[in-house]
Amino acid sequence: MNNKLISIEKINNAAIQFVNNMSIDFIHPLFPRTKDCIEELIEKESQWEDSDNQIPFLPLNRLNSEQEKAKGLQILQEIIESGQFTSGKYVKEIEEILGGVYDAYCVGTSSGTDALIISLLSLGVGKDDEVIIPLNSFAATENAIFAVGAKPIYVNIDMSYNMQYADIETMISEKTKVIMPVCLYGSIMNIKEVYDIAKKYDLHLIIDAAQCFGIPQIINYADILVLSFNPFKNIGTFGKSGALLTRSEDVQKLARMYSYHGFEYNKKNIKLLNWGYNCRIDNIQAAILKEKLTFFELNALKRCYLAHRYISKLHQLEVKKKISLPIERLNNTWHLFPLYLIENTGRDLISYAKTKGFEFEIYYPVLSNQYNTEYVTKYCKDLDFSKSENIHMHTVHIPLHNHMSIKEQDKILKLLYDYFDK
Q1: Are 193 and 174 contacting, i.e. CB atoms less than 8 angstroms apart?
Q2: Could you read off the pLDDT of 308-342 as tens digits, one per residue?
Q3: What's the rounded Cα separation, in Å, for the pair 301 and 408?
Q4: Contact, 154 vs 176, CB < 8 A?
Q5: Which of 213, 237, 243, 376 could cross-link 288 (Cys pair, CB 3.0–4.6 Å)?
Q6: Are the beta carbons of 164 and 197 closer than 8 angstroms?
Q7: What are the pLDDT digits (tens) for 212-258?
Q8: Which long-range contacts (CB under 8 A, 24 or more apart) does 17-20 make?
Q9: Cβ atoms of residues 148 and 120 within 8 Å
Q10: Residue closest to 337 by CA, chosen among 398, 391, 393
Q11: Is 144 within 8 Å of 285 (Cβ atoms)?
């Protein structure tokens, strides 16, 4: 397969043209050329029954199209016949493919969380070191830091839902070793600014890109970039898996050793490190991921089209100052679609939607500084995170996934207008 993907920016631009009822130039042999064609494709692959009264946030039985399921079953049969469930040719193949996409060394791992842990270890992060992160990420981000004996240092977010880079310098200390921005909900906003700060203070930068696969240029701003292929992501395997990417040969060698029992690079059963994890990607997940990658660009186009259709259809609510729509429109994979409610709280809208059979969510429901943990009790008591808390309180996420239908989206849009008209 071609290791160079169509850029997400180009895919978003195509989606915007479709929303505006314009035809697109030829950019991929499988891509539809008109608005009617993309909507026909979306409906065909959605597997949604119009008689359904419920609209789930993320329907697990529709994470994969019928074609994806068929290809997955076919490759699973091959793996079962070979018996190569853990080690096998697909591990090397998928690392080469992902390395080609990002123009970097790739180390496949058993999850995105493991990739974060291995990344920190490979950069020498350890006991009592500090790692700066945004406070609205999934727990895995800070758990990886705790796992290596270091301490997460929380920074506020801005309306992009990413790290507020203006606050970073005030949190840097002599113990700071790494800054770890998170491309939350699929947006890479502020990454370049965070990178500039890291370089200014000679700090390492790890990008938690678990939610924004397919924007390869961000590797230019990272010592290590981490991916997740959890089934819920824009592209996922049939289980947990992940990867880390780096342009440093020394870092990738260390990462391979830490991810596989401390064995010397390319020498199985000969230890060079005192210890290492057992967290390499399994052959079975690598094979599934290789197949799923062939669907990625078309799935990304559908997802981007639905996102920009939301933006277009909800514009009047923004004009009326009921909501704020996402800021980053082009370099965004739309892992999730957040709405900022100017006067209402996210939980109020979630409750209203639930009465109508709709499932809205908040990702993630609790900010890191609000956990009931010993670390938070000691560390966060004198810090001001009110800006982030206010953004979080007014944010809600509405359904968006690769195989959502136009009809589902129309019902969601109607519900939102009904909510603000009540």
Answers
A1: no
A2: 999 999 999 999 999 999 999 999 999 999 999 99
A3: 18
A4: no
A5: 237
A6: no
A7: 999 999 999 999 999 999 999 999 999 999 999 999 999 999 999 99
A8: 18/305, 18/308, 19/305, 19/308, 19/309, 19/311, 19/312
A9: yes
A10: 398
A11: no
Q: Using DSSP bridges, classify how beta strands 242-246 and 105-109 pair: parallel, antiparallel or unpaired.
A: antiparallel
What letter does residue 159 receive in the DSSP assignment?
Answer: T
Location of structure tokens 């016949």: 81
Distance from first CA to last CA of the chain, Å, rounded?
A: 52
For 132, other C-beta atoms within 10 Å of its C-beta total 27
From CA 303, how far away is CA 157, in angstroms rounded?
A: 25
Q: Are strands 337-341 and 395-398 parallel, antiparallel or unpaired?
A: antiparallel
Q: Which residue, chain included where needed, has tokens 């982030």? A: 388
DSSP letters along 193-250, please? HHHHHHHHTT-EEEEE-TT-TT-GGGGGG-SEEEEE--TTSSS--SS--EEEEES-HH
Residue 313 · residue 319 · CB < 8 Å: no
Model confidence over 342-396: pLDDT tens digits? 999 999 999 999 999 999 999 999 999 999 999 999 887 778 999 999 999 999 9
Which residues lie below 8 Å from residue 250, measured CB to CB, with a gap of 6+?
none
CA distances from 216 to 3, 12, 87, 101, 306 (A): 11, 15, 27, 7, 22
DSSP 6: P
Q: Is 317 exposed, middle or buried (0-12, 13-18, 19+ CB in 10 A)?
A: buried
Q: DSSP E strands: which ranges in 337-389?
A: 337-341
Instruction: Say whether 325 sits in a helix, a strand or coil.
Output: coil
